[in-house]
């Protein structure tokens, strides 16, 4: 199936909502129909509670009563709820602006009482798409605001919290924020592997010569891989910032796991670069096959033309209607003409064979 090449997203990776020269911190509500749905998970080594929050003020009764409180907002459609949470956690206007303007690249910033992180989530719906996840990491809480999407990429963390798998319930908010980022990064692996499988499926048909529908697909894969790389690469810088001395909220115990997340990003970037190189090789292979087939057609036509040019000359000479021509009345003239043309044709064919034109 022939797929169109959509380069619009590559040329326009985001759409800025504020006009040039707008005051810093100017937040514009996104055009999103999904209402903001708030869930909460509060836990400690022995305690765990989940709740759905209708009124953001309900969060206050959990803060301070548990070691860590995770408040998650899915969807940016309810401006009043988002503003209440921003006031409750005393978010800087620039932070609130970045939360609402979902074109941010991955980054990590320190704001004194809390750390602000932005990560990019990737999903296939069914075309490749990315969405923004913001994390506000405080002394005893993690506030996450997720741009609306179909897949719940953070559900594995909820399962680990409910079942107390690993050390997540024994650690602080810095480890929870790492776990959330790591889950987002790990979801890049199946997406990238999907493109690897698609390239494997393309290889054999391309070698067999079925190229009409494959070249646009290869271009689509290469473009999507470039989109993934552009969204994934800033995570490396963000994670290394978290491991620096500026972010004192992140302990040495969590820094060990951040190094592991950094290693996962390196693996993904290596895989993406490899697959993009495969795309380039497949395109080169296609052009080489096309050139080879064109050369074969040219060679075949050249052989045919070269054989028939002298035969056409002989037939033209003996087809002239002059009254006085040698051997015009000879009874073997017709057979002689045929024999001469066959001999010339065979001589040329033998010469081409000796030069190896018929090999392969």
TrEMBL record:
It catalyses: Mg(2+)(in) = Mg(2+)(out). It is a multi-pass membrane protein. Residues 19-28 have a biased composition (Low complexity). Residues 14-34 are annotated as: Disordered. The chain crosses the membrane at residues 301-320, 332-354. SUPFAM superfamilies: CorA soluble domain-like, Magnesium transport protein CorA, transmembrane region. Signal peptide: none annotated. One of its GO terms (molecular function) is magnesium ion binding. Keywords: Cell membrane, Ion transport, Magnesium, Membrane, Transmembrane, Transmembrane helix, Transport. It comes from the Bacteria. The keyword Transmembrane applies. GO terms for cellular component: plasma membrane. It is found in: Cell membrane; Membrane. Mediates influx of magnesium ions. Alternates between open and closed states. Activated by low cytoplasmic Mg(2+) levels. Inactive when cytoplasmic Mg(2+) levels are high. Belongs to the CorA metal ion transporter (MIT) (TC 1.A.35) family. This is Magnesium transport protein CorA.
């Amino acid at each position: 199936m022939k797929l169109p090449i959509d380069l619009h997203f590559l040329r326009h990776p985001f759409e800025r909502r504020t006009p040039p020269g707008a005051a810093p911190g100017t937040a514009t509500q996104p055009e999103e129909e999904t209402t903001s749905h708030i869930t909460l998970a509060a836990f400690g080594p022995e305690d765990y509670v989940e709740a759905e929050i209708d009124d953001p003020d309900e969060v206050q009764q959990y803060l301070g009563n548990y070691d860590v409180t995770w408040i998650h907002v899915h969807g940016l459609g309810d401006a009043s709820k988002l503003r209440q949470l921003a006031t409750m956690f005393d978010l800087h206007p620039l932070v609130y602006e970045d939360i609402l303007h979902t074109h941010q690249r991955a980054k990590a910033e320190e704001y004194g009482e809390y750390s602000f992180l932005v990560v990019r989530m990737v999903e296939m719906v069914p075309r490749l798409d990315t969405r923004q996840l913001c994390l506000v990491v405080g002394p005893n809480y993690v506030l996450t605001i997720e741009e609306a999407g179909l897949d719940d990429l953070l559900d594995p963390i909820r399962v680990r919290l409910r079942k107390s798998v690993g050390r997540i319930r024994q650690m602080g908010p810095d480890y929870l924020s790492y776990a959330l980022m790591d889950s987002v990064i790990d979801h890049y692996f199946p997406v990238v592997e999907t493109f690897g499988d698609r390239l494997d499926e393309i290889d054999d048909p391309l070698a067999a010569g079925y190229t009409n529908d494959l070249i646009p697909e290869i271009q689509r894969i290469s473009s999507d891989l470039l989109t993934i790389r552009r969204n994934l690469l800033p995570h490396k810088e963000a994670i290394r910032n978290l491991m620096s001395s500026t972010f004192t909220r992140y302990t040495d115990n969590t820094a060990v796991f951040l190094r592991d997340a950094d290693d996962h990003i390196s693996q993904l970037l290596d895989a993406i670069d490899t697959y993009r190189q495969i795309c380039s090789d497949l395109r080169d292979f296609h052009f080489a096959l096309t050139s080879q087939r064109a050369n074969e057609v040219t060679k075949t036509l050249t052989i045919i033309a070269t054989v028939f040019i002298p035969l056409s000359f002989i037939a033209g000479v003996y087809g002239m209607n002059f009254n006085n021509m040698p051997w015009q009345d000879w009874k073997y003239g017709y057979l002689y003409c045929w024999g001469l043309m066959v001999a010339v044709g065979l001589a040329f064919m033998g010469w081409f064979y000796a030069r190896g034109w018929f090999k392969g």
